[in-house]
């Protein structure tokens, strides 16, 4: 039986409003007496953000509009290609949970990106990756986001996310500018005019000389560039937008595939989609989304030519796997996800660069397409965790079990036959499925859906490793997507979820810790990435809506009688 609770108060618009909350136990039994409060009416309050803009943006008229520094009757909006009005204000949605008799209030807020405004002629579908400097203390009040199709990335204030500084890469063309007397320098990397920045990262360990250095992958050009953000940020105060050109590149990592010797063939663009550093940050590992490869390049070199010579490419065994995401694992090897064929791969960080794959549904073999997306290292145990888009699940991979049972050796020197790993022999030779289930390194945890249309997005850990945060969004192929909400999900791991010798016969498990759902105020978001900052605060990107968002949690007083 649900308890109905009425709350009366003054809205953000100064009018008296009432809100009805339905208080009921969650459908799945939870420990600690978890109760969920779902808002029936007026769950979403739209509010403009702070009326006190930061000095840096005080003269920016557009940002004043975004902040709401105008009379209540002032409206600012634009229309998308279908004529639908796009709101350019901050939006919020609040959810309440009761745990151990204490009410927890969680507010999800999101903010429009500047490249969506009229001024930059933005179109939805460009806001991608998000990052912070987690190790060297640079620019702690800001985070950085890429705008792929806008050829830009943004520096965004955490205090006021409508305060955004846009760094736009130069456009390079092969064509002669007929309207000018000078000829534009040809693009040495690609026929594409725009570089299309996707992944961006700061240095992954403490290093004073790398403080403020930002690595950005330019997919269309097949390069990764290193930028000194200290100088670029200092130059910004006099401009609304900064143009980044080749003179700003501290280092260029050309990760295209070149022919042997003196080949005159044009190099092949690997389209470096995701990249990460190894344990000592001596190498950058990147996915070749177009070439079905994973590569590595030295982080340091005396010049770009020396760095270019250090590039190595390793082919994935399965054709058409489409590798997209990589992360350093607890075994100091690199782990990655492939968008096609339900594949997770490992590449050894030693000289061999051996690539080993493991199918997600190796033993279950249900034929379901899962599409693994984000992969992260467990902060406590020797596990890798990854999200699956179509499977709407979180999977846990035991790296010790994988390395002991599934990593093959090289081919025999004499007959070139594959020397199978123990796991491979168990599966393919003995056909002992029950034994294989004991040695199989992956456990899949299904995440209950709010609607059957839902798909899972990114994945991130809290610092202490006790929480997993992920995103559940409505499938973009559904016409109903404009009517259904997307959610940020928090999974509280308990000992069974974490410690794990889970020998589960069907390779499926359910999280025994709490799972909490927080509604995103904007619809049709195509939630893309999610991260936690230096203070463990959650931030995320909305690719479809071109917005960035954050999650604020607080403990409130009890509301009514429970």
Can you give me a brief rundown of this structure?
This protein is mainly β and 562 residues long.
The major β-sheet equals:
8 strands, antiparallel
Give average pLDDT, whole number: 76
Radius of gyration: 25 Å
- Proportion of residues in helical segments: under 10%
Supply the helix-strand structural class: mainly beta
**Distance linking N and C termini:** 12 Å
Instruction: Count helical runs.
Output: 7
Question: How much strand?
Answer: 35-45%
The global form is: globular
> What topology, given as strand order, has the largest sheet?
1-2-3-6-7-36-35-34
Question: How would you describe what is shown here?
Answer:
- The protein is mainly beta.
- The chain has seven helices and 36 strands.
- The strands form eight sheets. The chain has an eight-stranded antiparallel β-sheet, with no helix packed on it.
What attributes characterize this protein structure?
562 residues; mainly beta; globular; eight-stranded antiparallel sheet; five-stranded mixed sheet
